[in-house]
Every structure is written in C-alpha cells, then in structure tokens.
Amino acid sequence: INNTSLTIHSPAQQALCKVRTEVVEVTRAMLDRSNANFLLWPPCVEVQRCSGCCNTKSLQCVPVVTHTRYLQVMKVQYMNKKPTYAKAVVSVVDHVECRCQPAPRSPVHKKKSSQKQHSRQHRNQTLTRPKKKMRKNRKRISKAAMRAMLM
Fold it and tell me: Matching InterPro entries, A to Z (predicted)?
C-alpha cells in the first residue's frame, strides 16, 4: 500500500507579504563597537520583520512603517576571571507594516561608495540579519545568576 495515497494533502498557500516574528542575535556591536571584552545576555531576541512573497519578482516585501524598541540586557564583563554584571540598553527595529513595492534595479555601473557609507550599510545589515548558529566559545551564565542580576 502506498502511504502517500492515504495522506490528505492540503493545498499550498502563498506566504503573503506580512509582519512575522524572527529571531536576531544581540551583538556586542549593538552596544559598543570599540570594546570586545564583554558578553550580552540574552544572546538573541525576537523582532517583528516583513517577509513573504509578492505576485511578481519585480516586487519585494518591504517595511513601510517601523518602530524602534529599547531592550534592557545584561552586560557581563570578566575582570581577573570574575564576572561583573551591569544593566544595558540596546535598540532593535520592529517592522509594523509591510507592502509589496518595486524592487530596486541593479545599476549597470556601480558608483564607488565611500568607506563610511559602506560601513553604515554593513552595520544596518548586521542589525537586521537573522540569527545564525551561536558561537560555542561564549561563556555560560547560570539561570540563577541571571535572575539575581535582573532583580
């Protein structure tokens, strides 16, 4: 007996352009680009982002309304192999409303962008990039220590 003939298949539904929950990594760069001697907790958070399909490839799902949200995180620094804890605030951008709009055309001749503009674009991409596999070398913080710090 062929099992697939007994299974009820539901019709595929297009993933419409709308706001969905995504997970992004909370990076040190979100707080301090000049110092790499600390960790942030939690390591990732949920944000609202536009995603989905538009009817043609010439359109793309983009945010038309956004909202900046400020999140309290724990900054953990190690001094003499002992952790010190401090509260800190990072900002994330939530997409509030999405729309299918014409995709920007790729220019035939790319203009040379200044280093400042390139790093600004990279920084914006870094803040909105979905969470990747977390690095294994992060130090673990116990749940009890986290509860104590957040009180």
Answer: Cystine-knot_cytokine, PD_growth_factor_CS, PDGF/VEGF_dom
Angstrom distance (rounded) from CA 120 to CA 126: 10
Within 7-65, residue ranges assigned H as helices are: none
* CATH dotted code for 14-104+122-133: 2.10.90.10
The pLDDT tens digits for 21-57 are: 999 999 999 998 888 889 999 999 999 999 999 989 8
- The C-alpha atoms of residue 83 and residue 85 are separated, in whole angstroms, by 7
Integer Cα distance of 137 and 32 in angstroms: 20
H or E element at residue 75: strand 59-79
Sequence letter at residue 71: L
